[in-house]
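Assess this one:

_____
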Amino acid sequence: MELNSRIIIHLMGLLLLCNGGFMLLAALVSGIYDDGATLDIAIAAVTTLFTGVTAMYFTRGHKKEVKRKEGYIIVTFGWIVMSLSGMLPYLFSGSIPTITNAFFETISGYTTTGASILDDIEALPEGILFWRSLTHWIGGMGIIVLAIAILPLLGIGGMQLFAAEAPGPSADKLHPRITDTAKRLWYIYVGYTLAETLLLKLAGMSFFDAINHSLATLSTGGFSTKNLSLAFWNDQPLIQYIVILFMFLAGTNFVLSYFAFKGKVQRVLKDEEFKYYGALIVFFTLIATLVIYFKAEVPVSEYHPKVLGTAESSFRHALFQVIAVITTTGFVSADFTSWTPFLTIFFFGLMFLGGSAGSTAGGIKVMRHVLIIKNGLLEFKRTLHPSAIIPVRYNNKTVKEHIVYNIIGFLILYMLLFIIGALVLGALGLDFVTAIGGAASSLGNVGPAFGSLNPLSNFNGLPDLGKWWCGFLMLAGRLELFTVLILLTPYFWKRT
C-alpha cells in the first residue's frame, strides 16, 4: 500500500494557512501597539500563507482519503512544519536572530512546554510576545483538531488524525461525528480563555498581560510576558488564585467540562481519574505547604524577595507550584528548586505525573498511573489464584487487556527515552542535575527544570545540539511517544 503523499502535502498546506492566519492576528496586535515589528510579522504571515496556498494548489487533485499511516505522518510532520513556519516572525523581526534559538522557542510554544531561551522577555515587541503566546494556544488543543473541524469542507474524514493526535490513552467522543467533537472542544477552549482573560483584567492585570497569560494557561504552556513569570504578581494573590483555577481546569479532561456544562455534574464527580487528579493535588499541596511554612522562605513581592512564609503565602505557593508542575503548565511563583532538597526531589517526581487524559497537559497522565498501579496490585491476586481471570476495572468497566499492554509499553518507552535524553544532555557537557532535569522537563512538556535550567534561569545556555535534542523530546512527549517514534521504525515505511 503506497502512501497518499498528495493528501499529506495538501494538509501541510492547510496547516500553514491556519498558521499564517494567526500570524496576521499577531501583526494586527503589533500594529495596535505600534511596536515596530508589524511589517516583519506581516511578511512572515504572507510567506507562510503563500507557501500553504502553493502546496494546496499543486495537490488539489489528491485522493481524499486519510489512512492510519498518513494520519501519523500528517500529525508529526504537521507539528514540525508549524514550528518551522512559526519561527519566521522571530527571525524576520530580529527578536531571535538564530535559527536554532528561534526553532527551540517555537517548538517549545507549540508543544506547550514553555521552556525559553530568552534572557529579557519584557524587551520583546508586543506583537512578538502575542505570537509567542499564540503558539501555545494553537498547540494546546492541537492544530490538528482544528484542521479536523475544517476537513469536511474538503470532503475528508478525520478520524485517523484525531486518533493520532488526541492526548491520553483514549479519546472520548462527545458526538458521533468527529468534526462535531472537535468543534465542541474548541468552544470550551475558547470560552475558558475568554473567561480567564476577563477575570485577570478585573483582578488588576493589564488587558495585554491578561490575554497572553490566558493563552498560556489554557494550553498548559507557561510562557509569560514577564521575566519573573507569575512571581511578578506575588503581591496580588487574587491573580495567582485565578491562574491556579484555570490551570486546574486545563489539566482536567475537557470532556468532563462538556458534561459539567450540560448539567451532568454527577458524571464528573464519579469519574475515577478526576477523583485521583483532585486528591493527588490536595495531598501534594498539603505536604508542600507544611515544608514551605516550617522550612523555606517564599517571595512576597518583586521588591521583597524572600521572607519566612505566612500560612496563606505558603499554601498559595505550594498549591500554585504543585498544579503548575502536575499540569505541566510551567508558570512559576518562586524558585521551587531553592525551597529545600526534599522539595526539589518532590517536584522532580511530580514532573512524571502529568494531568488528565483528554486535557492539554503533558506528562504521563494520571489515568496511566492509576491503571498501571491497579494492574500491579492485581498481580498479587493473580499470583495467589493463577487460574482466575481478574481484569483491571476503571470507572466500573473492564479495561481491555491490550490497553493495559499499551500503557505498560508507553511507560517503558517513556522512561527509556528519559534516560537516553539525560544521557545525551550529559554527553553534551551538562551536569547530572541539569541533564536529568532538562530531559524530564522537555519530555514532560513542563518548562522549568533543575540545575542551570532552574525556574530563575532558561535554556539559552544549552549547546545548539542540546536545544535540537530537547526540541525532539518536546515533540515526542507532546504527541504521546508512539506517534513520533513509530516513524523511526523500518516497519512503518515498508509497503504492505
Remarks:
- Residues 296 and 339 are 5 Å apart (CA to CA).
- The radius of gyration is 22 Å.
